[in-house]
Design a protein that fits this description.
Oligomer: heterodimer
Structural class of chain B: alpha+beta
Number of domains of chain A: 2
CATH topology of chain B: Glutaredoxin
Shape of chain B: globular
Strand order of the largest sheet of chain A: 4-3-2-1-5
Largest sheet of chain A: 5 strands, antiparallel
CATH class of chain B: Alpha Beta
Number of strands of chain B: 4
Strand content of chain A: 5-15%
Number of helices of chain A: 17
CATH architecture of chain B: 3-Layer(aba) Sandwich
Number of helices of chain B: 3
Strand order of the largest sheet of chain B: 2-1-3-4
Chain lengths: ~425, ~80
Amino acid sequence: MKRELKIFAALVSIFVVAYALPLGNPKIQEGIQEAFRLLQWYARNHTLACVVPALFIAGAIITFLSQSSVMRYLGPRSNPISAYAVASVAGCVLAVCSCSVLPMFAGIYQLGAGLGPASAFLYSGPAINILAIFLSARVLGFSIGAARFIGAVIFSVAIGLLMALVFRKGERKKAEAVFQMPEPEKPRRGVAKTTAFLASMILFLIFSDWYNPSNVTVKTNYGKQFKAVIIHETKDMLRFQLEEDISENKMGDKLELQKTEIADMQEQKTWVIQLYHIRWYLAGLCGLAVLIMAQRWFERDELRLWMTNTWNFAKMLVPLLFGGVFVVGFISVLLPEKQVALWVGDNSLRSNLVASVIGAFWYFATLTEIPITQALMKLGMHKGPVLALLLAGPALSLPNILVIRKVMGNNKTLVFTLLVVVMATLTGIIFGTFF
Amino acid sequence: MAMKKIQILGTGCPKCKKLAENAEAAARELEIEFEIEKITDINEIMKFGVMMTPALAVDGQVEAVGKVLSPDEIKKMLG
């Protein structure tokens, strides 16, 4: 019955939108166009090379990596150092579905390695699933993708240690239960084979996502020559960021030139660019390796399970992502650019704080944080606050905070929330200063 | 035969629902008396000592953790 009600509610909302949408309003028209344009951009640029392979990898991780062996490092009587280390990266392996993060967090806290590692896991877990990282790197830029991963891992350890330090006296309420470990499954093949298999898939993704940094050497009609990065190209204009000083312009300055002003433009022959040109061959090789390994080392039923898991992820994530992209495209036109620039337009303490507080309380459905920050960046959000938002966003949300409060009480939840906000703000400022 | 109490531990994600469906199907096929209880409260789940959801308990005894069992696998546990 509940299901039928939901369907009815969905139909009613579609009806209301269709009935009332003021199509004559130019803002609305622009919004609809932008929604489709953004959707097409994701479909053309990110779907086949990034989202689809990442879904297969997520499926493979769930199927072939033994999660129970990871949880072993987070159980009771585990070595604290390895518990922190594993907790900070375990999200890669375990947290592909955000709904599994909270029970694991509660488990690590009450039954397993305790408050510190549990907090570390809660902070990094949701942020570092493989799809989120690769998609952030593609859509928001390599430096943000990398910083998101590294920031999440490093600061999760810091937050875990601080939590453990602040509450070192508090007796943790041990659940009165015997720790139920999932039965260890007997491995069907050596660790080396599984590693090689997963590594080839991840390499495939790295190559297929390899991007062209567009470093060029430009000669102008007035005999000037300089090295620069192309930031934006239109039909007859090019926008550069300089890589060296030329007369009145300094390195890092942005410069616009008409195409007619440019006498010659050559790609710089860096290894990144050369690799870019052969990326599909490399990705193809990795893909072939994956197929051969799958054929030779894996049994039928395992492969079927892999496909089932991949399909389950696809069913869960694809509507969220593309629905999110569409809605964000529409709304981004209606957002006031001035307000965005005012609140998060620079790398000040306030901008970063605003971004991380919003991130901490707002609920982002899995992956939708990416189109949302992308839209905000287009409206002038600085890279520092972007990272702050990406770090605080998936780790916490209001519904999330309520569940955490039930697990570990008011004080610890308050301190954890504060730590997340402070850490995300600091990371944002540091990152924003350098990039 | 006494009534079997089947408990599904999980916070309500798709996998937990799938496990509940499979458990129900298994119990029906065996034609035993049963009741299914879904435990979604995270603290209650912890009392079972379960860290990875979904999990399945029969008569209060945890039988499987962290995976969706097929109806056939569940039948063995109920039998």
